[in-house]
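ok trying again, last paste got cut off:
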Amino acid sequence: MTAASQRTLAQVIAGRSSAKTAHFMPCQRTYYPEPLTLVSGDGVYVTDDAGRRYLDFFAGIAVLIIGHGNPKVRAALHEQVDKIVHTSTLYLNEPVISLADRIAGLSPAGMDSVFFGNSGTEANELAGVLARHFTGRKDFLALAGSYHGRSVWTVGVSGLAAWRNFGAEPANIVFVPNAYCYRCPLGLTYPSCEIACARTIETAVKSQPPDSIAALYAETIQGVGGIVTPPPEYYSVVKEILDRYGILLIADEVQTAWGRLGGHLFGVNDWGVMPDIVTSAKGLAGGLPISVVITRREIADSYPGPHINTFGGNPLSARAAEATLDVIQEERLADNAKTMGDALLAELKAMMGSHPFIGEVRGRGLMIGVELVEDRVTKRPATRATEFVVNACKEGGLLVGRGGQFNNTIRIQPPLTITADHVKHACGIIGDALRQAEREFVAA
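nice, full thing came through this time. structure:
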């Protein structure tokens, strides 16, 4: 164990000041007491400015879906940079035309209209605009515990309290219970609950003026909210209710798309439903900024614009996205996400027997959450211990994320290229980190 990992809790979670961040605004947060400066990446590993190597199981918040420095993406970028690197959405470029055709062909039947931007926030903004124009309604439903971005609009439709820290709601937003079975907001137990959380949507709709709700925003799996994973029946119940009231389903696939969940390219399709609008970003371009809104032609046509995005459809990002999709399909990475995800879930669940801090292990494919609690009966969140574990993992050579309503869930979202050896290595480091936390906190 290193000296850093032996520090007391007070030392670990003490001040965040650093010479490296002297000129950054205080609102820019970084992980770890001493910010980690990364200088290179190769596959599933990254290296910091001290030359130390880490197994990256967070992938830049689920972005490096095919790993760092993929040679096919690098080659595409090198080729494109000698041609043209920027046009804006006022002009077309060959890479973005090709990418639009590619995504339309990969999307569910009828979902053939796209608009490219740079971030999930931008995509979720446009999704709301489309929903309002198509339905002629102005209000929205959103899930408790959700996260949809960092603009005033997307903060307004996010239900995670920690991130509703500025701005006003952009419209009347009605929040409904999420499918958080471990901490059921209705106090019920799955499956005897008969998916009551989904059925509350109808009650919420009836409590509003008739024909006032345009759409429901829903992350397929809530990422920042703690990898909250709905049961298999959830979205079919939700969609049936929405359809009866003429309400659109906006599937926020910013984190879950492109095979991460180990099934379809779009995670929501694993639940057997067809959304009306899909938003995505993060993993699409192998690390370059890009986002996309995908919808049916009649919904797209309801908003004639004008709409513009200065950096949307950037030729470099578009080329990187096509190369990323090539790798995902050619190397069958969605299948690997299923295989490695199942193995990782099994290993982590087996650890519950020897690590009482683990309250629940949940997720699908390579989007997994480990919720830590002080007591499994009361489910009291082990928030401070979770920060300790995340830091101890870093000291052990593993990068993982953190989230959840109580910031007590370890987020594991590695590249889809990981192997069984990587799974074993990561679980060993997590086990060591948990043992350190148990010594630190149980003794306290």
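cool. DSSP finds 13 helices and 16 strands in the chain. The two ends are 19 Å apart (CA to CA).
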